[in-house]
Structure formats: C-alpha cells, structure tokens
Specification:
The protein has about 250 residues and is of the alpha+beta class. It is built from 6 helices and 12 strands. Strands 2, 3, 4, 5, 8, 9 and 10 form a 7-stranded antiparallel β-sheet that branches. It has a 5-stranded antiparallel β-sheet with strand order 1-12-11-6-7. A hairpin with a 5-residue loop joins strand 6 and strand 7. The protein is globular. The protein starts with a helix and ends with a strand.
C-alpha cells in the first residue's frame, strides 16, 4: 500500500472520530481566588487533548499552563525534551518592572504539570497515546455501569508523588527523570477523563463508587457548585480543579 493511500485512510478514520467525539470541560479556581492556574486545550481534528496545572509557587503559573495547552493543542508534535524547549522559547512574560522578589521568582521560571492525549481509530478500536509529566490522571469509565475501569499512571492516591515532576519555562525545561508514556487500546463504550491532581486524588479515593454519585458531569455551573461544597467540607483539597470528559457515540 502506498504512503498516500495510508494517509487517505488515516484521514477518513480521523473524520469518523471527529463526528462521534464529544468533549465536556470543567474547571474551577480555588476558593477565595479569581485566577485559575489550571488550563486545558484540545483539537478535535487531530484528536489531541491537553491539560496543565500551574505550580502555585512559581512565576505566573496561570500564563504558563495556558501557553502549554495552547501550544500542544495546536501542534502534532510529541512531547519530548526538544519540543518542551521550543515551547519555552516561545513563551514570554510582560516586560513590566518587577519588585526584586518577583524578578527572582521569574528567573527561577514558571512551572506546571501536564498531560497530552492523542486519540485515533485503528482497526475498529480507539488507540490512545498518552504522555504525562507530573500528577495528572487518565481515567477510563464504562458507560454502561458508570464505573471506573482503569486509571493511568496511578492506581491509588498513595502512588501520587509528594514532590511532583514538572515542566519549566527555563532550563532545565523538563524537571523530571522521564516523561511517562502509555499506549492503550480501548474497547467500545468507554469514556475518557483527564484530571489535574486534586480531582485525580478524589477520583482515586472513590474509585469503587459509581460515578453517578459524583454529579459534576452535567454542566460547568453544577461542577463549580459541587467543587465549592466539597472544598468547604474538606472532602477535596482547596486547589484549582480541572476535568475533561471525552466520550464517543
């Protein structure tokens, strides 16, 4: 088979995915703050989805996480040390005068965790390729019984690192020993969830419960109300929360 023929087949398969794919995005800033350091981005035509969680102790993490998501959602390049360095090179902050402590923070860089997901159709199956740096979580949920089938890269909240890996806007751009990667073939009828750390810990702690008991899949308004109630009750930590739900007809 010629390379042109293979490209045509891939385009048709991708077109089938785009028509069947549905995305819901939920995000909420921590209590008492207006700025949300979490970000998300996606491109249905390429089947790419990105989430990022800005590290609060770094310089302007909300701008950095947004840049990560915008850059990788528009790109078809894989996550690597090389692409991370290119992304950081294209990132710029305001040149406004800063106090000495903010200048020092800027020199240390902006940091964020991130996860990139690529979805494609192959042989009648959905193939998911994931790359993760830090403590974001990928969750596969059965539509029929509304339960978690499996998770990656953590199976239990205790596995999530205390000092997490991150992506930096300054050298070394990859603040981790390695980029976590996975290729997963999905059977029909599964939903995919992508979650930043606080939502990830909550989902892992309630993994045996039907997700019907977690009423944040209806709308952004319901998600924000649920998030505020959960944080006030200390059932979930007071952190920025972000979740993407990807489903297929």
């Amino acid at each position: 088979m010629s390379s042109r023929r293979r490209r045509d087949i891939r385009r048709r398969n991708n077109a089938m995915i785009w028509r069947q794919m549905h995305v819901k995005c939920f995000t909420s800033a921590k209590l008492g703050e207006k700025t949300n350091a979490d970000s998300y981005g996606y491109d249905l035509e390429s089947g790419r989805f990105v989430i990022a969680d800005g590290v609060s102790r770094s310089f302007r993490p909300h701008l950095w996480s947004a840049h990560i998501c915008n850059s990788f959602a528009k790109s078809r390049q894989k996550v690597s040390k090389r692409t991370l360095s290119f992304m950081a090179r294209d990132f710029s902050n305001s040149s406004e005068p800063l106090t000495w402590n903010l200048e020092e923070l800027r020199d240390r860089g902006s940091h964020a965790t991130m996860m990139v997901l690529d979805v494609r159709l192959s042989g009648g199956f959905l193939e998911v390729e994931a790359a993760s740096i830090g403590d974001c979580l990928l969750v596969f949920v059965s539509k029929d019984v509304n339960r978690v089938e499996t998770t990656w890269p953590f199976k239990d909240a205790k596995e999530m690192p205390f000092a997490t890996a991150a992506v930096s806007s300054v050298r070394p751009f990859l603040m981790a020993e390695q980029i976590l990667r996975a290729k997963i073939r999905l059977k029909p009828g599964l939903r995919i969830l992508m979650a930043t750390d606080a939502v990830a810990r909550y989902l892992l702690s309630t993994i045996k419960l039907p997700l019907a008991n977690v009423p944040f899949f209806e709308s952004q308004m319901i998600f924000e109300k649920w998030a505020d109630e959960m944080r006030k009750s200390e059932l979930i930590e007071n952190d920025d929360l972000t979740l993407l739900e990807i489903s297929f007809d």
